[in-house]
Amino acid sequence: MRNDLPALIIIDMQEAMANPAAGQRNNPDAAERIARLLGAWRAADAPVIHVRHISRTPGSLFWPGQPGVQFQEALAPLPHEHVVEKNVPDAFIRSGLERWLHARGIERLVLVGVSTNNSVEGSARSAGNLGFDTTVVADACFAFAGTDYAGQARSADEVHAMALANLDGEYATVSDSASVLHCLFDAT
C-alpha cells in the first residue's frame, strides 16, 4: 500500500442506501463514480477505507443482522482493505480511524459516500479539525430530501449543496471525481 497517496474513505455505501425507504436522493450516478474512484485507488495501490454504519436503534435499516447493513456488492471491501464500523455519523468517533491513519503516516484523505449532510459532513469536519488534508468529492456523494429547521421542505440537491458549502474552504476542499482522478494519476 502506497501511504504517499491519499486514502479513499468510502462512507456508508451499504445496501440500506439503495432501499427506496431511505428517501428521495440526488446524484443518481454517485455509486458509479465511487466505483470508478475505487478502481483507480486499487490500481494505484493507494489506501482504501470502507466505513460501515451499524445502528443502535432497533428497526433501523442499519440494525445488525439486517440486509441493509451489507456493503453494496460493487463497492465491497477486498480482504486487505480496512473496514471501520461506526455507530454515529462521524467515522472518527470511537472507531480507531484517526489512530489507523496516523500509524501509517497518511495525511491526505478523499471522502465519498452518503449522506452528504450527515456522515460525510460529520466525518469531513472531524478530519479537517484533526489536521488531515481533506477532499470531499461532490459528485461521488449524495443526500436525501429533508425539511429545514424553519419547516421548509428542501430538495436533495439543496441539502447536498448546503452541506458542501458548509465544508468547502473551512474543513475540506470540495472537488469533483474527474479532478480527483486527474490528481491521483499525476501523483502516481
From TrEMBL:
Gene3D superfamilies: Isochorismatase-like (3.40.50.850). Signal peptide: none annotated. Pfam families: Isochorismatase. Residues 7-178 form the Isochorismatase-like domain. InterPro entries: Isochorismatase-like_dom (IPR000868), Isochorismatase-like_hydrls (IPR050272), Isochorismatase-like_sf (IPR036380). The keyword Hydrolase applies. Keywords: Hydrolase. CDD domains: nicotinamidase_related. One of its GO terms (molecular function) is hydrolase activity. The keyword Nucleotide-binding does not apply. Transmembrane segments: none annotated. This is Cysteine hydrolase.
